[in-house]
């Protein structure tokens, strides 16, 4: 059996000292909402790994760097100062080089650019190291596309959220309206989600897949509070989380 890398060994040791919970899944399944609620109820730090890609995309666009230029984007990633300020009462604040960019990184243009830069292996390597540094503390609820497979492969508990495509499109439309005051049509959003899914699942490094032993939750017909309740029930079992399959059946 190959020996784990030094980086992964450190991650494994850290995961044994503190509670690490990962929540992965495609866009529009409710990862952010659920992760924030779970972190609040468990008094843990909330880590939005997607925000790191969005912040980098925003900074690259602001500097006039083409998101397709891996070396140039990686250079920007290595220089940016990023802080995630999590407070259950106020929510998550994303501070980029000392500036609050929380709302700026949720635009359609930044979303599209983030999907492009997320394909670059060198960029992902820089941001994974950043995400691990941001996740210091006694416990973390981390959400994204590869938190349970790449960022925190030794997390004690892993969840993978799914939802019907039409539900995801409606949720994404509501999110954009909240940020921009307007949104594209459902048809356009559905097409964007399919394209993003294809990119996420086909990338060489950190593709979107269900982590081994992850607990699957179908959120199509479940409000966020019910999803969290079922997650907590799985966590409270405490033994082998891989034996539990949580879905919306019977709701």
Brief rundown of the structure:
This protein is an alpha/beta fold. The chain has ten helices and eight strands.
Structure explained in plain terms:
This protein has one domain: 3-Layer(aba) Sandwich (Rossmann fold). The protein has 251 residues and is of the alpha/beta class. The relative contact order is 0.18. The chain starts with 5 loop residues before the first helix and ends in a 14-residue tail after the last helix. It has a five-stranded parallel β-sheet, with helices on both faces. The chain has a three-stranded antiparallel β-sheet with strand order 3-4-5, with helices on one face. The chain is built from ten helices and eight strands. The model is unreliable at 1-6, 11-16 and 239-251 (pLDDT under 50). Helix content is 49%, strand content 16%. It has helices at 6-17, 31-42, 49-62, 70-79, 108-117, 121-134, 147-151, 165-180, 186-202, 224-237, and strands at residues 19-24, 45-48, 82-87, 91-96, 99-100, 139-144, 157-162, 215-218.
Key structural traits:
251 residues, alpha/beta, Rossmann fold, five-stranded parallel sheet, three-stranded antiparallel sheet, 49% helix, disordered N terminus, disordered C terminus
- In quaternary terms, these chains amount to single chain
DSSP strand tally: 8
Query: Rg to the nearest angstrom?
Result: 17 Å
Strand order of the largest sheet: 2-6-1-7-8
> What's the story with the biggest beta sheet?
5 strands, parallel
Q: Which spans have pLDDT < 50 for at least 5 consecutive residues?
A: 1-6, 11-16, 239-251
Number of helices: 10
Average residue-wise pLDDT? 87
- The proportion of residues in beta strands is 15-25%
Secondary structure category: alpha/beta
Helix % is 40-55%
CATH fold annotation: Rossmann fold
Distance between the termini: 44 Å
Shape: globular
Number of domains: 1
CATH architecture: 3-Layer(aba) Sandwich
| Text of the CATH class | Alpha Beta
Q: What's the CATH H-level superfamily name? A: P-loop containing nucleotide triphosphate hydrolases
Instruction: Summarize the helix and strand pattern as letters.
Output: HEHEHHEEEHHEHEHHEH
């Amino acid at each position: 059996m190959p020996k784990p890398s030094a980086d992964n060994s450190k991650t494994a040791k850290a995961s044994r000292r503190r509670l690490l919970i990962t929540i992965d899944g495609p866009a529009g399944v409710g990862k952010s909402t659920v992760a924030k609620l779970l972190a609040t109820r468990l008094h843990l730090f909330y880590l939005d790994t997607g925000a790191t890609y969005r912040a980098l995309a925003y900074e690259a666009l602001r500097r006039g760097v083409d998101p397709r230029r891996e070396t140039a984007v990686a250079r920007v990633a290595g220089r940016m100062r990023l802080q995630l300020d999590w407070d259950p009462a106020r929510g998550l604040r994303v501070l980029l080089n000392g500036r609050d960019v929380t709302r700026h990184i949720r635009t359609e243009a930044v979303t599209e650019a983030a999907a492009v830069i997320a394909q670059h292996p060198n960029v992902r390597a820089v941001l994974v190291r950043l995400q691990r540094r941001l996740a210091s503390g006694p416990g973390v609820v981390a959400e994204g596309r590869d938190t349970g497979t790449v960022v925190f492969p030794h997390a004690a508990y892993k969840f993978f959220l799914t939802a019907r495509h039409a539900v995801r499109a409606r949720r994404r439309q509501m999110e954009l309206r909240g940020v921009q005051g307007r949104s594209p049509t459902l048809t356009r959003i559905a097409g964007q989600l399919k394209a993003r899914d294809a990119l996420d699942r086909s990338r060489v490094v950190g593709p979107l897949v269900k982590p081994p032993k992850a607990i699957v939750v179908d959120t199509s017909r479940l409000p966020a509070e019910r999803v969290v309740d079922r997650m907590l029930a799985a966590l409270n079992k405490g033994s082998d989380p891989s034996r539990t399959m949580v879905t919306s059946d019977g709701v």
